[in-house]
Amino acid sequence: MTDLLSVAKKAGVSRATAARVFSQPELVRKTTLQRVLAAAEELAFRPNRLAQQLRTQATRIIGVLLPDPRNPVFAEQLLAMELAARQQGYALLVTTTGYDASQELQLVEEMLCQRVDGLVLTVADAENSEVLAKLQRESVPYVLVYNQPTDPDVQAISVDNRLAMYDAAQYLLALGHRQIGMVAGPMAQSDRARLRYDGYCAALREHGITPRPVIEMASHTRASFPLLQSHMQGNEGLTALLCSNDLLALSLISDLQRHGHAVPDDISVIGFDGIELGELLFPSLCSVVQPREAIGREAVAVLLAMMRGEQPDIGKLPHRLRPGESAGPLQRPDTDAHRIRTR
Amino acid sequence: MTDLLSVAKKAGVSRATAARVFSQPELVRKTTLQRVLAAAEELAFRPNRLAQQLRTQATRIIGVLLPDPRNPVFAEQLLAMELAARQQGYALLVTTTGYDASQELQLVEEMLCQRVDGLVLTVADAENSEVLAKLQRESVPYVLVYNQPTDPDVQAISVDNRLAMYDAAQYLLALGHRQIGMVAGPMAQSDRARLRYDGYCAALREHGITPRPVIEMASHTRASFPLLQSHMQGNEGLTALLCSNDLLALSLISDLQRHGHAVPDDISVIGFDGIELGELLFPSLCSVVQPREAIGREAVAVLLAMMRGEQPDIGKLPHRLRPGESAGPLQRPDTDAHRIRTR
DNA sequence: AACCAAAATGAGATCGATCTCATTCAGTAG
DNA sequence: CTACTGAATGAGATCGATCTCATTTTGGTT
Fold this sequence. Notes:
Two copies of one chain form a homodimer.
Chain A (H helix, E strand, L loop, with lengths): L3 H8 L3 H9 L6 H13 L6 H8 L4 E6 L5 H16 L3 E6 L4 H13 L4 E4 L8 H8 L4 E4 L10 E2 L3 H14 L5 E5 L6 H16 L8 E2 L8 H6 L9 E4 L2 H13 L9 E6 L3 H4 L5 E4 L2 H16 L12 E3 L21
Parallel strand pairs in A: 1-2, 1-3, 3-4, 4-5, 6-7, 6-8, 8-9, 9-10
Antiparallel strand pairs in A: 10-11
Chain A binds a DNA duplex through helix 2 and helix 4.
InterPro entries (chains A, B): HTH_LacI, Lambda_DNA-bd_dom_sf, Peripla_BP/Lac1_sug-bd_dom, Peripla_BP_I
Keywords (chains A, B): DNA-binding, Transcription, Transcription regulation
Protein name (chains A, B): GntR family transcriptional regulator
């Protein structure tokens, strides 16, 4: 409707000159500049980014693929990315997978059709992912977030998941706990949950304790006490639980309390992520804090660097164990009257 | 690179035919169809949506403007919208305002340059918003979410905020509370907070109680006990608080507890929104539940209807008071030993 | 007044699809 | 075998900007 050509006509100049007014105003004589600007103003000219994008072969749009914005970890990362991206003149096209790996390929394909300049992804499992293989093959710039692939050539922004969970386990061990379990969502679909389990195992072994199999929940974000029990056949009464994310931890604490178990008196619980809400609650959530904003910002920064053709070299981002009321020293070391048992 | 023209050449047909293969395959003879598809496959052809969008003047992109995805209310809405949109072949371009009305105009302008087909917005204040005026003027399809403007011509998906808070206040009154306050974020910036305050006032007046001035917090999502105290100069000891959203309520409960006030024994707290997390915590959060997923879905549905030129007529969506442990019957009706006082 | 480099401007192709309208093709009837 | 009809296909304009390269202006020199 109100395209550049109309503006140019109204101002009595050519398309080219009108275009220059917006892209390289310094090349235009001041008087013509003002004439064109006036015409643009009058016609309520609004540059058409589609045309720009088509012509310049650059959209300044970043495609974002994440499991679920309802998980504060992703919401916080999303916000940080949006701010960082906007500051550099980029916008975000956002898609969610619902933790469903089978959707990843098609969703990414969709964004590639839109010609996003690059992608920020959190995939289910970075190790054997069709999507990543394809992106690699087509050399589309992309950055993983939260994923921690083995391949060092893949750019990924994350903490050292193994070490982080190792630290959390050590924390519990230092508090005197010996019967420690780990709760996670569906393992097959999460590279980071597996690494965290490794860390848990390593810490226990260092203390001569045999790690238990992971207690696998059906949901990535919702733990239930009955399911916990059913996974504990033949196990000793636990005194502490590590959760592979904060939402699991919070829902678990809630369900434990509902079933008459006190946290941390009967059982200590540690989460992973360090979402803000955890600090507001009672008991406050002890958790391994990931720097979510920094992760988001860094993801954008690294992606933009890659798009400029640089070879950014990123290390792991630092994690930190945030103490909280949900994890305390082992109580009644010689009786387990209140401990959890298999039914 | 791998444009339609290359495919057409490889298949030995014209651009037009090649294009038809993807848009109206029924018009193409089966043998040519397969030849073109084979060529496309071989060249790894990926349709360029920018070109399509430019030519057809339709992007199938919905612009989304929301305050902050870290608030679960918006995260849940966002997810619902993404799913609904994708099902109809639309994608989301997401922008955040950080509750800052002064950014709204520019952010929307940006999305209009991208030629989004329509907008879903949650603005600070729908009553006197430049953005809405502009969108109206340019007849860009848009839908408000959570906002509740006076103007009936503006499409808005929300609950009846006034009635919802009225119900919450009635709930407290029925529990015997008489000293009821309302906590909110910055009022000047929130049409819905004002309506909720109206509802609070109405309920109290019906019981012959003079409403108190709103207790205004600096943040939209974080309440503090000291700030609460400082706003209560000359007031009686409160026994119950209504919060204009769940995050305020949760942080307030946490801060109350930290300052030695028991919830609900010393003071009852009710939130607004009904975020899932509220149910997991202890005490579980009593809250006015908004149907967030339905709101998100509806927003997309209504917007698409508008884009088709229809005149969807939407009523308010239903709210419901979800009881919770954070709000209980009035304790010790004649002593206020534990009640909150101004210092 | 003539000349020249530098500064402004313009003409036209281009990005990759879609759409209209004209043209060709295949199959059938006479 | 010719004519006719509907199905398939093609030619070329178009969406709205950008970019290159050619051309015109401008302003300063001599």
